[in-house]
Amino acid sequence: MHSNRKNSAHFFINAATVAAELSVVLTEAKNISLEAMNAKALVARAGDNVRTFKPITDFMVELANDTIWLVKEINREALVLSRTSLAELHSSDAHNRFKRAQQKASLAPYGDTIDTIAAEASNTHHQQAMQLRRHMRKLFELLDEIESRMLAANVVTATSRLEAATAADSYQASLEGIVIKLEKAANRIKHIASKCRRSLER
Amino acid sequence: MMKVVKLHESRSHEWLVFGRDEERPSKIIDTNQYMIKTTNHAIMLDPGGIELFSAMLAAVVHHVPINQITHLFASHQDPDIISSLGLWDKTLPHAELYAPWLWEGFLRHFGCNSIRYNPLPDEGKSIRLDEVELQFIPAHYMHSSGNFSVYDPQAKILMSGDIGAALLPDNAPLFVEDFDAHVDKMRLFHQRWMPSNRAKKDWVRRVRQLEIEYLAPQHGAIFKGRDVQRFLDWLDELEVGTGVSAR
Q1: Which CATH fold would you assign to the domain A2-72+140-201?
Q2: Strands of the B42-45 sheet, one edge to the other
Q3: A100, B61: Cβ pair inside 8 Å?
Q4: Which of A54, A82, A145, B87 is the most buried (most CB within 10 A)?
Q5: pLDDT in tens, B26-49
Q6: Which chain A positions have a beta carbon within 8 Å of B93's beta carbon?
Q7: What is the pLDDT at residue A7?
């Protein structure tokens, strides 16, 4: 009973923390989007000189948009999880208090009049616990998704580096700058996503 | 186990007081809860804090089936009075709560989704449960700014909320046995919790007009017979609101 209460309290605090942490990810995702726009402009200006960079900029735009969408989803789910775990905590508390009253009233002439309410409280608690598990699963799936996107981003930065190295001198520095920024943003997002996962698993 | 004492029994109704719960967590203040049981109804007066809920529910079903409890009353908004509201709301979804209008938006924070909140106007109100009339007597600023006592003219009982409260050790007697000795245990409570001499005088003046056999506070011991008048005399003379001079 105590470990359940502890878990719910823990989720409700940590889910709220996850939502707060994710605001940083959103900023990073917006940075990727901005860099993608810069890259697109550069590619358009450079024409054939950096033609091979075009699919990379397209990927960056897609990555930024997907990340922004995912972060919004995770944020929404984290807030739902926070609310659900709080409701689970309350339902667990009510369930335990009704159970205690039932035990204390076992010999009372009207003790059985508590039974229906105690059963309802137990049922509500069971449903809340199931809902909590469902939302937890969903949140982990979304975190998995964002982490796998960032792994893909790492592969793309490696390819981009090679492409930047082969570009004309006048564009090389700018392209490398874009790649570095993309890499930094992806690493930061990956770091925060793992931190969020750890705090939920704790 | 919570102690239960019958204060009054007649053909029309019973008054019960619940308190001195031995399993109460030591750091929470002891409280007296009251229940009036009529032929078809029951009302709980200041049903208590959330920590007492299980003990209170278990004690109540020794006397009435749950569905007979149709009314609740909260003298004011304090947690030891009514923080159990959210759980009573699940237990008695069809019940009605009588409480000061002033505290409606505040009391709803405890959870009041199903129970109907009947806001008591400042001037008070009477209700009838079967053959029993109950009067909600204004006791504003005694100590809360929206506050009521409950008077039963048939049983001659005044449930006074925090007025007459005393800070007593565990397992103290439920009735005042030695008024002079008891005064020491309630002086600080009244001087520090009651803010207004004017409100106090006004309440004492109005209550003196009632015929009271038992004056039943929410903490401490119950006054009976001549001790009721002695208490009113003592309170009338007492200077309250002393917190303002603390430095």
Answers
A1: Four Helix Bundle (Hemerythrin (Met), subunit A) (1.20.120)
A2: B3-9, B14-19, B33-37, B42-45, B69-73, B96-100, B116-120
A3: no
A4: B87
A5: 889 999 999 999 999 999 999 999
A6: none
A7: 58
